[in-house]
Amino acid sequence: MLSAMAYNISLAIINCWSWWWEAKNQHDALARTMLTISVPSLVYVWYKWTTSRLPPGPYGLPVIGYIPFLRSNLHEQFTEMAHKYGPIFSLQLGRKLHVVVNSMDLAKVVAREQDNTFANRSPPLTGLIITYGGMDIVWSNNNAHYRNVRKLLVSQVLSNANLNATQVFRTREVRNAVNEVYNKIGTKIDIKKIAFDTELNVVTNMLWGCSKSDIGDLLDGFQEVECKIIELMGTPNISDLIPFLSRFDLQGMKKDMQRQLEYVDRLFNHIIERKNKVKNCKIDEVDGRKDFLEILLDLKEQKNDPKSFSIIHIKALLIDILVAATDTTSTMIEWVMARILSNPGVMKKVQDELTEVVGLKNIVEESHLPKLTYLDAVIKETFRLHPPLPFLIQRCPSESCKVGGYTIPKGTVIYINVWAIQRDPRNWSNPLEFNPKRFLNCKWDYNGNNFKFLPFGSGRRICPGLPLGEKMLVYILASLLHSFTWSLQKEEEFELSDEFGFVTKKRKPLITIPSLRLSDASLYL
Ligand code: HEM
């Protein structure tokens, strides 16, 4: 039955074809030949056009593409372009196609529905240099090594159990910060520097068991080096965009990053040597636990194959964590303080809450933090307007796929424009207004499940340091705002402009003057 039907259909096709092809004269024959060729070609072109359409975007110049039109405030420029081209647009930068995703719906497609496809990175050359060839977490593709080291970091450093066990470091370092400010009362203070050193000391204690002061002056230049590392990772580099020019290192960025690596390498060699000599630094032993460096060194010794986990892997992991933890946290503390200082009403509410929850004859403890709901809302509202990583960290699809009906070829560099999403009037009423109340009534968190609000990212690449980052932000801010009253210098012109970068920071450092808020001096010691 079926074979008879197939026979009849083929017969019909052949009959039609012969009718089509049997020309009455030469003129007909030519026309039919042309049509026979052009109809399938048109169908093919139409099919290709509809199935492989790239997202819309601006035209660029031959070879270099849109590179000469990039501005320094890329987050603002991409947001303006989103208004013109829509929720997803593409731009050719040299040899590389870049796609910017600007809506919460499409961010969800990338970071949830196709999270696995988009779980690779597209590391810049400078990122590869400082992480010993991308042997870290941040710049690794989603491969077995990446999954293993991320799991190791989460289970050994950032788990709830470990965070509870290392509370002693946070308490000590935050108290040290309060004491340092107390000793500088009435003078100008760079809040970011205080926050940076506090976070750095907490993290180095968790990583290798010592604070900055325990290892001489080795970490003295670290903040400056880190700033440079972040600047170099966030600046568009011709060597990445037009690879055949990379040998010339036209912007000198490769050389510059190699200089930073020399410092980092010297630092880690010293720390590892020291650790090998005195297996247990002079540190407070936490629960008899090993610090992360000890765990990593043991792991290296256990591996039969030295290539699978070497000293290089350890150093790459350490620089990742130091950079990822300190600059983000201190940048956010500066932003939150700036927002509070520019809103006296908000300052009053934060301090009233601290007086109520902590009291004026007491100091802030970690147990108070969950009760500071207004401060928490202020921090979240600051994150909304000033996400430190405005495009998260670029992702890269491992195969060609579709987003919003457009084709995204394998290897495209993908930015999720959190800066635009968190200021989008379709997601937020009066989006430019600083209004912490919007975070008071609903259940908001940083877990990346609500795609309107993604300061720590979402999906399998979400920031693994989130539990520590969140704790440290609230703890440092609560302590500084509980212990001191802060004011600006008289001549200080207050402004809230930002400077785009891999971590986008306040353009002008926030310099403030503290005065005492507590009457009992012993609370500062
Ligand atoms: C205020 C504090 C912090 C903020 C705002 C922040 C933000 C982020 C963001 C937006 C990402 C990229 C997520 C994505 O691509 O979807 C990220 C990645 C990362 N963060 Fe954080 N972070 C903070 C603190 C920390 C801390 C304390 C650590 C470690 C102790 C850390 C370690 C990392 C690492 C290793 C990655 C790479 C994850 C991966 O590629 O799988 N961060 N962070």
Percent of residues in helices comes to: 40-55%
- Please tally the helical runs, counting DSSP H or I stretches of 4 or more residues: 18
Work out the oligomeric state of the chains in this entry: single chain
Alpha-beta content class: mainly alpha
Q: Mean pLDDT, rounded to whole units?
A: 91
Beta strand %: 5-15%
What shape does the CA trace take? globular
What does the radius of gyration come to? 28 Å
Give the ordered list of helices and strands: HHHEEHEHHHHEHHHHHHHHEEEEHHEEEE
Q: Numbering strands along the chain, what is their spatial order in the largest sheet? A: 1-2-8
Low-confidence segments? none
> How far is the first residue's CA from the last residue's CA?
95 Å
The small-molecule ligands in this entry are: protoporphyrin IX containing FE
The main β sheet shows up as:
3 strands, mixed
According to DSSP, the number of beta strands is 12
